[in-house]
Amino acid sequence: MATLPFPAAQSKSKFPSRFTHFNYRATLSKLFFTTPFLNHSRRRNLSVKNIASDQRQDLQDPVTRGDSLDTSVPDSGSIAFRIKYHAEFTPSFSPEHFELPKAFMATAESVRDLLIINWNTTFEYYVKMNVKQAYYLSMEFLQGRALLNAIGNLELSGAYAEDLRKLGHNLEDVARQEPDAALGNGGLGRLASCFLDSMATLNYPAWGYGLRYKYGLFKQLITKDGQEEVAESWLEMGNPWEIVRNDISYPVKFYGKVILKPDGSKAWIGGENITAVAYDVPIPGYKTKTTINLRLWSTKVAPEEFDLRAFNTGDHAKAFAAVNNAEKICYILYPGDESIEGKTLRLKQQYTLCSASLQDIIAHFERRSGESVNWEIFPDKVAVQMNDTHPTLCIPELIRILMDVKGLSWKEAWNITRRTVAYTNHTVLPEALEKWSLELLQDLLPRHVEIIKMIDEELIHTIMAEYGTEDLDLLRQKFKEMRILDNVELPDTVIPLLVKSRDSSSVDAIEYVDEVEDPDEETESAKEEEPTEEEEEKEENDVKFEPDPALPRLVRMANLCVVGGYAVNGVAEIHSEIVKNEVFNEFYKLWPEKFQNKTNGVTPRRWIRFCNPDLSKIITKWTGNEDWVLSTENLQILRKFADNENLQAEWREAKRMNKMKVAAFLKEKTGYTVNPDSMFDVQVKRIHEYKRQLLNILGIVYRYKKMKEMSPEERKACYVPRVCIFGGKAFATYVQAKRIVKFITDVGATVNHDEEIGDLLKVVFVPDYNVSVAEVLIPGSELSQHISTAGMEASGTSNMKFAMNGCVLIGTLDGANVEIRQEVGEDNFFLFGARADEIAGLRKERAEGKFVADLRFEEVKAFVRSGVFGPYDYEELMGSLEGNEGYGRADYFLVGKDFPSYLECQEKVDEAYRDQKRWTRMSILNTAGSYKFSSDRTIHEYARDIWRIDPVVLP
């Protein structure tokens, strides 16, 4: 028997008059517990004390304790009662009003009630079945708003819309009150969130692990000076989706020292100690009871760490030092790392994620194992996926826990780790393949450096076994390319082997001489071959492979991932080939079986079913049912109707409705008025030189210049009206990217106020691009630009979202563009630019001074320099596209090389858009061809090929 204590009723609290037509307080408790939200095969009675009425009632327990859970649609009005319950008894706002912010909180909390039931049941069932589980570790989870996604997955959108109308609110208005969760920035984080949705939908036993950032990356403001950053405020009003688990926390240590215990084991003692506390967020699947968990860590210290004596003496900074050091770990996503303090903070973030998550994973394993824990089967029950190199410290941390805490030997711990951890590579950019200072790591995580050195030593012996020790130059080359420790002396165990190999080679040479000459006679040639003291010293240094004291000593995290993991995957076919043949070629030759491709995907629920309901209805109508939401291969049915005039008419009408929403949104956010009959041309993604927003805006500048040189009649005849929309954040310390943002906004300010041009061309930069903005822009887009330098974008996922929504792509053969073009058809993709296998040669040509710029490229740069876009000095930006070598110069990303090809391709875009029947056909075929790019497909492949887990369907 259990008692659920309800808060005492507040006699003065009042709802608006629309609530007073029934006896709310008298009926709420009964309705809350007896409304058939869920049918249960097994129920139990419990006594609930209603404090407001001070009476006991025998009610049915709404929480399932049996083995089955059958979801049913709530009765009419029952949702409204639950919303009202939370509005009064789970208050985040004053009781006098029921305005939109309060309506959102109460609505979200009512949805969370439903999720918790499935959530708890899912967890209990996994424990009962003792299933193998995948754990996805990521520094980012770019979730977006959760309300519409949650009720959509629960198939309650209609019911919630109806009951909210009864309460005087519109569901869409309520949903807009929710801030985007500031837990990510770009495609890496959005991919992680799509994966969680698919894991739940496909019933795979899995959890996500991340950090609970208080202020996110930053909120982007666009001012006359370009981008400005302020802290995100997403937690200011509270987060109704998260549940703090005060009983689930783990210690995390920094600094200190390592000691040798009497039994020969190691202990890490002293230093700085913090606590990681769990915050859980439910992730519901679509049309399934499975609800998995995203566990986020927040950091704090024990109250006794607050220096009360210092506070009372007025030294407040000292009093708060320990508290601030702990809490700031989870303040900001990707703090600037130009300073040693910034680097240290980033490493603290990464280690906190790894340490707390692994301690939690191991605790789950031990609880499920009962009294007898068999560590050998740990990899049979646990798969840890590292989303990029940020969670690399999982590898030494797992070894540390197994050795120092659980008492396993090095050999046992190393073997278990190599069978547990897998690595997803997301970049080929050298600066994005993390390298950390060995000294910094040694200071912050001394025990982990010891373990990393042991792993490096294992790798060295593996390399020597593979290539032998006869050719020292070859070994030196392999060590330089493959070692985890860069520019670090060889381990003591290796030097004798190399010296022995050298001496053996010398003996062999002497013995050979003995066979042909008199051993008692010292020949003149032998005298000449005796090494000098200087040569002996040089030879000794060669054998020792001495590091260069002028260069830093580094830990290469990507190499550690490859060595310590059992699987390495790229995220698009072309990217995976580059990973195998260039980035990790030496490792691929050593362990080819480790390397796989897993092309990224996006969830069709959020990215078409929920964000584009008008188009979704059309797809359902023409494919015959709604099965495509779970089985996107059914989208291919649209191919046979691509020329059907009725479908095309419906398709164009849906697109225009979405464009009108975009136009209204742009007016609200930027003040610019755009014509929905123009082509909507969109590039929204993280601002980076390799993504080449600069190429796009220079193309627009050239278009504008040519327009200005024409008569009004010529302009209309030559150019299709366009609205060019940009969005994305430049990292706060990335000066060149911020220059690009400034340039785009300056071009927009000039073009959009040019009365001669009018609606023929508009340029709009949308501030603070995030998931919610994407959900508005993508359905209304007609042309989407994915124009990165070939071979530099690992995959991309926004290209998939645009194609799924019937947007035609212009792009290079880079990342997933290659596969998208194959699926949608070459005629339905606008291709331009150099190919990946040409890039190295083109850069070499540039360095040799052989590149000759197209005259149009020179023309557009001169136009920018003329000052037509305002007084800002764009010399640094234009200068980066010039010269043959040097940092920040020489057009490393080949904007100038691809510029003429880009302009010519844009002319083809205009030509195609004039023929609306052709364009609509292309749009339909893009949606039909996007079937392959569902994250459901990707997760099936991860589960089958990497994690080796099976779906677990709740009974």
Brief account:
This protein is of the alpha/beta class and 955 residues long. It is built from 37 helices and 26 strands.
Descriptive overview:
This protein folds into 3 domains: 81-129 and 145-179, no CATH class; 132-144 and 181-496 and 545-603 and 934-954, Rossmann fold (3-Layer(aba) Sandwich); 611-933, Glycogen Phosphorylase B (Rossmann fold, 3-Layer(aba) Sandwich). By secondary structure, the protein is an alpha/beta fold.
Strand order of the largest sheet: 9-12-13-6-5-14-15-19-20
Mean pLDDT: 89
The low-confidence runs, each spanning 5 or more residues with pLDDT under 50, are: 1-72, 506-517, 521-527
Overall geometry comes to globular
Labels describing this entry:
9-stranded mixed beta sheet; disordered N terminus; alpha/beta; Rossmann fold; 47% helix; 14% strand; globular; single chain; 6-stranded parallel beta sheet; 26 strands; 955 residues
Layout of secondary structure:
Elements: H1 24-34, E1 38-39, E2 45-50, E3 55-60, E4 70-71, H2 78-89, H3 100-129, E5 133-137, H4 147-153, H5 157-166, H6 171-175, H7 187-201, E6 206-211, E7 219-223, E8 226-230, E9 243-254, E10 257-260, E11 266-269, E12 272-284, E13 291-300, H8 308-312, H9 316-327, H10 340-369, H11 378-381, E14 382-387, H12 394-405, H13 410-418, E15 421-424, E16 435-437, H14 438-444, H15 446-467, H16 472-482, E17 485-486, H17 495-516, H18 524-529, H19 533-544, E18 554-556, H20 557-564, E19 567-570, H21 573-583, H22 585-590, E20 595-597, H23 604-610, H24 613-623, H25 645-670, E21 679-684, H26 693-708, H27 712-718, E22 722-727, H28 735-751, E23 761-766, H29 771-780, E24 783-786, H30 798-804, E25 808-811, H31 817-824, E26 829-831, H32 839-847, H33 855-865, H34 875-879, H35 895-914, H36 916-929, H37 935-947
Parallel strand pairs: 5-6, 5-14, 6-13, 14-15, 15-19, 19-20, 21-22, 21-24, 22-23, 24-25, 25-26
Antiparallel strand pairs: 1-4, 2-3, 7-8, 9-12, 10-11, 12-13, 16-18, 17-18
Helix pairs in contact: 1-2, 2-3, 7-37, 10-12, 12-13, 12-15, 14-15, 15-16, 24-25, 25-29, 26-28, 26-33
Protein name: Alpha-1,4 glucan phosphorylase
Modified residues (N6-(pyridoxal phosphate)lysine): 801
InterPro entries: Glycg_phsphrylas, Glyco_trans_35, Pyridoxal_P_attach_site
